[in-house]
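Before the break, one more example. Copy the sequence into your notebook; we will annotate it together after we see the structure.
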Amino acid sequence: MHIEVEKTLPSLSQKLFRADQVRHHEEQAAQQSFCSLYGLMQRAGKALYANALQLVPNAEHFLVLVGNGNNAGDGYICGLLALQAGKHVTLCAVDVQRELCGDAKQAQAAFIAAGGEIETFAPNQLKRNDIVIDALLGTGIKGALRTEFAMIIDAVNDSELPVLSVDVPSGINADTGVSLGRCIQADMTVTFVGIKQGLVTATGKQATGKLVFEDLEIGLAFSELCPTNTQLLNLDRFTGLAPRQVNSHKGRFGRLLCVGGNAGMSGAIRLAGESALRAGTGLVKVYAHTQSRVQICAGRPELMVICDGLAEALEWANCVVIGPGLGQDDWAIETFEQVISHCAKADIPIVIDADALNLLPKHAVAFTTDQCVITPHSGEAARLLGSSIDEVESNRFVSARLLAQKYNATVILKGPGTIIDDAAQTWVCEHGNPGMATAGMGDVLSGIVGAMFAQRMNKTDAAKYSVCIHGRAADMIASEYGERGMLASDLFDQLRRLINQ
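Here is what the structure looks like once it is written out:
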């Protein structure tokens, strides 16, 4: 199978950075671009004001909320430009008496010189404004929020005003996307120089709203100074699968064995098998418990269902998916051990999902293959790492990398802003929506990954492409019918449509 992972090299708008990477390189990038840091702040303020008018085109009353760092300087410049445009600006500082320093102090002075005034925040100010500019907290905040910040954030979130956040929504950790107790729920976030990786996963993905990137005209220099191995992933970056030849036959498009479907759990493996068929696999065989055979066959007759002869089925397959509906009883353990042993010895590509992930830690030492994809959600990831869900979610990027290293696998860490990590590079999928939080969605994904693997795509490309097509299919359904009530099987028609584009 032919697929080009990227049509072109990723642009700066597709790359992701930690906050310290941006801080350490933006000054030199500005200098190389013949721009001072204050000039950079002026560009940021100009971009904020322009995007504020995009968010609320008829805004006449601006409420600008500032803290004490460079984000405050950006807010002051935005307020200055609004004043100069004849808008009414209410600017509230958390510490009215605190003296700013550096470029933020210069921006504050320019705002005051233009007739601007600095006030103390009061909740009733929210009632007489059209838009909130959130310049309270920037990328440097790490610990718990001070009470005065938390109070303002709560008041803003309780209001119905549109909110534009500066660089990151206040209260979001720019590196992890974790909320520091509470955070601004923005309608739009304008981030500068490089996209902060915390804006695209975990709580940060929700809090950011519409993400707008502005390189402030120093993007070329910054890209050269600061390489990154973390990128955003979008289905539009793939050229897609090559057209099939006229003389094609089913044997050329993979022989996938899906293992699972314990007694009373036939649905999960049926979903995985059917999604593999819809993703173009030539032949899909399901090994399931005897008590699940009838249900699987009745639901999708194109699946070849067997309840014995596992060794022969493993010899037949060129890829295995194990886990959906597998369970953890004696039948499951015996089946799991046989599959894992065969795939390790024969170096057969394998996708490990669901219950198989709960059995994997006991066999991690013995299981060695370079052709493995694992697909945990945060609970399964915690068990795989011997940690807690909170620890996994506290830094999804680190958790994904640890999983990839520990299990010598390409990892799909599912959740808002699904992360793919192969121990060398990291990708975050832009697609997906809350409607996917329903039974069977992970089973459909594992079937798609298995399909790509079976059609001889390498493990990392299979993971990246599958996550994107899975999320895009769900987004298409949500846009037409809404998020609530989405079923995993609803994805099949859209999956088939996307796989042929």
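The mean pLDDT is 94. The two ends are 15 Å apart (CA to CA). Try to locate both features in your own notes.
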